[in-house]
Amino acid sequence: MLEAIRKRSQGWFAKIILALITIPFALWGIDAYFSTGGGNEVIAEVGDSGITRQAYTDMLKEQADRMRQSMGTNFDPSMTESAEFREQVMQAMTEEEAMMQEALAAGLQVTDAQIASILQRLPPFQEDGKFSPERYKRVLAQRGFTPAYFEYQLRRDIVLDMLRQPVVAGALLSATSAELVTKIAGQRREVSWHEIRPAEVASQVNVADKDIQAYYDAHKTEHVEPEAVRVEYAILSLDEQAKSIELSEKDVQDFYAANAASLGPPEERSASHILIAAPQEDAGARKQAKAKAEALFAALQKAPASFADVAKRESQDEGSAAQGGSLGSFGRGMMVKPFEEAVFAMKPGEMRVVETEFGYHLIRLDGVQGKTPPLASVRSQIENELRRQQAQRQYAEAAENFSNIVYEQADSLKPAADALKLSIRTSEWMTRQGLPAEPFNSAKLLDAIFAADVIKSRQNVEPVEIGRESMVAARVIDHRPARQKPIAEVAADIRERLMAEQTASLAAKIGQSRIAELNQGNEPAGLGWSAFKVIGRQQPEGLDAKTVQAIMRADASRLPAYVGTPAPDGGYRIMRVTRVIEGAAGEPMLRAAVDNGLRQTYARADAVAQLELAKAAQKIEIKPGVLEKKQ
After folding, report:
1. Does domain 3-172+605-622 have CATH number 1.10.4030.10?
2. Nearest to 30 by CA among 140, 115, 152
3. Cβ pair 481, 198 in contact under 8 A
4. Which CATH architecture best describes the domain 267-369?
5. C-alpha to C-alpha distance for 474 and 448, rounded to whole angstroms
6. For 258-315, how does the pLDDT look when each residue is reduced to its tens digit (9 = 90+)?
7. Residue spans per domain, the chain
8. I need a labelling partner for 521 at 20 to 30 A (CA). Which of 55, 179, 406, 533 fits?
């Protein structure tokens, strides 16, 4: 029964799930996103599901945070305030929900046992090669997830994958198309070229002062120095508070005595079972399965040593039946609830009949594993936990105190810093564009710092949360208003730009004129050509991609053929094609690459078609004005 999902968890499927763990994924799928509870206004409908304003607002923030993290100093908050960004987020939410509606309509679902089996095999959640519930919770907590949310999201992603995978995997490849593309991809061309270098034509270019003035007048926004500030700031962090907490030996000993069992490897139990399967909705089949399980139980009570033989013969869980019913060792959270509750309540050697959604299980507990670790091996773990617990108890009070002092003594951060033993730091000059490193990669903090009244008053900014357990207060100490740079300051840059543009334009004009002469059979005097090279899409021989593209697109029906391309240095190249070398359709490596590329292309097209069908099957309505408003 579980064997199929176990096999899938070893290969590509596990990689997909691992990607969700190692890279914080977008918050699709949480129940509140598609519900109308809590008084949330529904702003979009997908079939029978509603997307609330809160869900949409949360998603906008989540996507903005992901962009901020991935782009670093290149992130510009204005990108996430555009109508286009808001529209893309809403589109993604409605499309995903439309696909989910299709999956549910198709009856696709993932059981608790399947989720448990997958989690048990994911390396990020393992210690010493075995699933660790504590590590599982710890890894999720580090990424801001609860087990309930993560398992809900995992279940949703698996269901969507089950819907998409047959379509993607079923993409058909035409052998004729593959052969043709392979030939085209493998084709090479013999070329030589003549270069018109920028230095050759630069003397013919003259940028007048009036040209500079005209460019400046037409592009004034390009020459604005943005508003900038320098601030002093203080950060209140739970982690920093935890480091300063002193612990007594009694604290450590008491914690160890109370929690020793949970500090070591979690208790695991090994069990075997015989499954008599029956659909939940079939009362008759359930009754028969129960009777058979109880009959087998009665027989095994008399001959317990025959359990493995009976399991091989009678169990309908193919994966464990071959092992005499053995499920190996597992911890809490790895089996469906009724099964787990029974196993963890039994004594070694004991047998029970238990009902689950899969049918009736005749369970035998084979053993119990787990031991209490010595204090020395877990001391640092205990100390870290105690410090964090104490810091958490103190943090709320410290945060309130921090906020009050910052507000009440608004002319300086020193009183708050002294009271809470925080350091005051000073930033470099910064603007709203090109965000600096933390903590100023918070859009909320930047908005507060650049508020006109804060800049004018030089008073403290109300503390802003920059993480789950950290906040920062700041005060502007220097301000540089935005200004239009005078023409004298930017004239040299404009002159250089116009020189480059006009030089490239003149080089292209000369090149195109020479190509026209060459096509008429007249070669201009003094035209020098490079040595011949054989160029292909896979063998560019040092030429840039645009030049290679031009060479391969040149009409080779009449040779030599001539084509011109701008050179990367601002000059111009005249490319001469003198020979075409056809590619071989049977070249193994190239054919394999082409096949793979075409399959991916077809699969993407099929996936898009599937999505469009899913959207067409659901009535999607977005309330007027929602996307135009700043959420």
Report:
1. yes
2. 152
3. no
4. Roll (3.10)
5. 9
6. 776 667 677 788 999 999 999 888 999 999 999 999 999 999 999 999 999 999 999 9
7. 3-172+605-622, 188-224+486-581, 228-235+381-481, 267-369
8. 533
